[in-house]
Design goal:
alpha+beta; 65 residues; single chain; two-stranded parallel sheet
Length: 65
Amino acid sequence: MKSSFRYRSADLRIVFAAALKANATGIIQAHDHPSGQLVPSDADKYIIENIRKAGEMLNIRVFEL
């Protein structure tokens, strides 16, 4: 089944809110590829890099599945 979304943005405040509230030292990041392509798009790479950078600033490790 293919998604109707071509691009989704990640709000870093929402991504890290639960981790901060729980005093977590790390989060696990997982994402899908609705296009069916296994190679991450430029948008995927941009979002992933921003999440990693925010995690570094907050001292929260980001693990990717």
